[in-house]
Amino acid sequence: MDRMWASLAAAAAVATACASMPAPTGEVAKADLALQKAEAVNAAEVDPLDMRLAREKLEKAKLEMREENYIKARRLAESAEADAMVAEAKTRASRAQQALLQLQQGAGPLKSGASAGGTQQ
Predict the structure, then answer these.
(1) Are 80 and 64 in contact (CB under 8 A)?
(2) CATH number at residue 67
(3) In a domain, 80, yes or no
(4) How far apart, in whole angstroms, are the C-alpha atoms of residue 62 and residue 77?
(5) C-alpha dist (Å) from residue 91 to 29, 51, 105, 120
(6) What is the pLDDT of residues 7-43, one digit of tens each?
(7) In terms of Cα–Cα distance, which of 70, 72, 78 is closest to 23?
(8) Domain range spanning residue 68?
(9) Which of 32, 49, 64, 79 could cross-link 72 (Cys pair, CB 3.0–4.6 Å)?
(10) How many domains does the chain have?
(11) The model's pTM
């Protein structure tokens, strides 16, 4: 009998905590902004998987918000933000790597020209 009351009290405490939790509007907004930033650098070209996951999680977070499942909404929004940030970072790193490669390839003829000119003297 004591276990039943303890279980009921625990369930009531959890229900009260969930009901009093504020809507994670800030987390959803941050996830939305992170997705916009990733889209601005065309991250879907470099990292389509993380971008798709971010979009899906953000949509699910918005759905959970409408259904007032704020704990799930917060978790999904935070995960969507992280996925979008990863996609943006991978895209920026890939573009930086490409730029470095182009610079190195462009410097190749300069190096060989400088060394060839130096040996003729």
Answers:
(1) no
(2) 1.20.1270
(3) yes
(4) 8
(5) 22, 11, 21, 44
(6) 666 665 555 555 578 999 999 999 999 999 999 999 9
(7) 70
(8) 23-103
(9) 64
(10) 1
(11) 0.71
Residue with tokens 């977070």: 61
DSSP secondary structure letters along 5-68: HHHHHHHHHHHHHHHHSPP-HHHHHHHHHHHHHHHHTTHHHH-HHHHHHHHHHHHHHHHHHHTT
Among all chains, which residue has been given the structure tokens 């000119």?
117
State how far the Cα of 18 lies from the Cα of 85, in Å rounded to an integer.
28
Token pair, residue 26, equals 């800030």
Q: Is residue 1 part of a domain?
A: no
- Measured CA to CA, the distance from residue 2 to residue 19 in angstroms comes to 26
Report which of residues 33 and 105 the model is more confident about. 33
Handedness of CA 111, 116, 117, 121 (dihedral sign): positive
Residue 38 CB: number of other CB atoms within 10 A? 27
Classify the C-alpha dihedral 15-17-20-23 as positive or negative: negative
> Which two three-digit tokens encode residue 31?
């996830």
Structure tokens at 121: 């003297």
Report how far residue 3's alpha carbon sits from residue 84's, in angstroms, rounded to the nearest whole number.
45
